[in-house]
Design goal:
It comes from bioreactor metagenome. This is DUF1697 domain-containing protein. The chain is an alpha+beta fold and about 160 residues long. It has 2 domains: about 1-80, 2-Layer Sandwich (Alpha-Beta Plaits); about 90-155, no CATH class. Helices cover about 30% and strands about 25% of the residues. It has 5 helices and 7 strands. A 4-stranded antiparallel sheet has the order 2-3-1-4. A 3-stranded antiparallel sheet has the order 5-7-6, with no helix packed on it. The chain is globular, with a radius of gyration of 17 Å.
Length: about 160
């Protein structure tokens, strides 16, 4: 049985697409997942499954959320080991001049970026912000906080 983390985008934000974490946990348990744990009201869920294909899990979870709650949401599922590699490979984490509390990771639904997309992204960087791309993972260093950057999920996914 493998451990997974699912990231459900766009739920419980500004009163939209509300899902109680108790309901979400029950939904996962009804799918046969084990040791289901939710994180705050974020839509991030740790669970165990016998399924080997993360894409199958993404489609299954998104479909059941649509059927249960009536709205579409993007779902990203990562094996726990994959997340550990993503954290370890953050190009900014070993820079002693950077406060790790200002390091962020975002996941794109598609990769790689095309050159015009990259140029558009780089023009939105604020002074001292840094960004790096590895496949569909975006590493951000936002020393003024994620709330002030224009390089957020919504911008990066458009």
């Amino acid at each position: 049985m493998a451990s997974y983390i699912s990231i459900i985008r766009g739920i419980n934000v500004s009163g939209q697409k509300l899902i109680k974490m108790t309901d979400l946990r029950q939904l996962y348990e009804n799918l046969g997942f084990e040791k289901v744990t939710t994180y705050l009201q974020s839509g991030n869920v740790l669970f165990f499954s016998t399924e080997k294909d993360a894409r199958v899990l993404e489609e299954l979870i998104a479909s059941v959320i649509k059927n249960s709650f009536g709205f579409d949401v993007p779902v990203i599922v990562l094996k726990a080991e994959t997340l550990e590699v993503i954290i370890r490979d953050n190009p900014f984490v070993h820079d002693e001049d950077k406060d790790v509390s200002f390091l962020y990771v975002t996941f794109l639904s598609a990769s790689p970026l095309k050159s015009p997309d990259l140029e558009k992204i780089l023009t939105k960087r604020k002074p001292r912000e840094e960004i790096a791309f590895v496949s569909n993972v975006v590493y951000l260093y936002c020393p003024n906080g994620y709330g002030t950057t224009k390089l957020n999920n919504n911008f990066l996914e458009t």
